[in-house]
């Protein structure tokens, strides 16, 4: 969000961020039913590498198009992982519902971000 210059795109990203927070709350609520630990967290090195890459790719180009492209790459990875989970026939209904909501949210995001390319 701190790289976005367009108020319109910032508004889209705020909405998307709130949707992610909602999904995270749903996962945290049901996770203890399926695992004794906490939900998987991305390791510090992966986070650092991701932030570095985003910083480098937006250093010279903070255009909506460039930011939308970076976001689309991540969103598409989320869709792929979500679809893999949904394709498992023995998935729990409660988990299936959350993953379905997540994938639908991501697919809607793709359509919105396409406008900024």
- Beta-strand segment tally: 0
Poorly predicted runs are none
Total number of helices: 4
Coarse structural class:
mainly alpha
Approximate strand percentage: under 5%
Order of helices and strands: HHHH
Helix content: over 70%
**Anisotropy-based shape:** globular
Q: What assembly state would you assign to the polypeptide chains in this entry?
A: single chain
End-to-end distance, in Å? Answer: 17 Å
The average pLDDT is: 87
Main sheet properties: none
Rg, rounded, reads: 16 Å
Short note summarizing the structure:
This protein is mostly helical. It has helices at 7-30, 44-59, 64-86, 93-114.
Report on the structure:
The structure is a single chain. This protein is mainly alpha-helical. It is 73% helix and 0% strand. The mean pLDDT is 87.
Descriptive labels:
single chain, mainly alpha, globular
Give the arrangement of secondary structure elements.
Elements: H1 7-30, H2 44-59, H3 64-86, H4 93-114
Helix pairs in contact: 1-4, 3-4
